[in-house]
Amino acid sequence: MNRRSFMAGCAGFSLAAGRARAQSGTLTKIVFPFAAGGSGDLLCRMLAEHLRAVLGRSVIVENRTGGDGLIAIKSVMNAVPDGTTILITTGPTMYLLPMVEPKPSFDHTKDFMPVSLLGRFEFGVVTGPGTDAKDFAQLVVWLKANPAKAAFGVPSNGTIPHFAGSRLEAALGIPMTRVPYRGGASVVKDLVGGHLPFAVVTVSDAVPQHQAGAVRILAVSSEKRSPFLPDVPTLRESGVDLVADSWYGMWLPAGSPPDAARQLSAAVTAVLGKSEVKEKLLAIGLIPVGSTPEGLAQELAANTAFWQPIVKATGYKITN
Length: 320
Known about the structure:
There is one protein chain. This protein has helices at about 15-25, 40-55, 70-75, 90-100, 110, 135-145, 160-170, 185-190, 205-210, 260-270, 275-285, 295-315, and strands at about 30, 60-65, 85-90, 110-120, 125, 150-155, 175-180, 200, 215-220, 245-255, 285-290. By secondary structure, it is of the alpha/beta class. The strands form two sheets. It has a six-stranded mixed sheet, sandwiched between helices. It is globular, with a radius of gyration of 20 Å.
């Protein structure tokens, strides 16, 4: 996975001016590392809409794409720490990127102040016409019987599906070829066409084709069964001790006022508790969940500790 070098711009105004603007309540900016239109972007825009009323000031969303998320991350890291510049991104962006960079660009424990968890999403082990497996055990039998065809698709290298697939490979003792794509939709398309034995993708990417009977979600990677697929077992129920869900979180630059983080955390929890917000998030495959700043810090630390040895064992690094 190649990445062009980039320069992260520093904010071009003084700390005093930034604080004065925050106090006057003119603008809060949510920075999101990915393109508009996806579920994460919709989450940001929904929060911005509701936070305007709660915070009593304008809230905008800025999509700063590129650099595998690093352009957005470093722009917030270098922003004036006055509580008006917010980063929303996935947990894996924060804890996996430093693991796969040859030289880490940031340290989430030192460069950012946690605010709140926002929403969880799940991954599924999915097969299609490429196998005759009707459940996870049958997929394992098929893979063992067809070692030359043993392969799995992932939306991208360096992601949770990538490393979850590698963990499956090790747990099952079956050598497999990883096939990276550019997004989950392309993976599901090849599953439907019978070109892949199975894939690890977000549940929301696969549910429409699963419901249509074109693919079969055999297991989900979450700790509990998915609310979207209550009849589909977890990987643990299927005999593999692996929990690999993901989530969105909110951060401020390090050095921001602690009161700003707590105010935002309380505001976010209030917004996520609204029934209309819950319904809209569930409709796009996100399970709303708020937290305290401490709760987000604990979640990030636990995920970092869990994935560090798994990622290290693969030897995978981003190439520049």
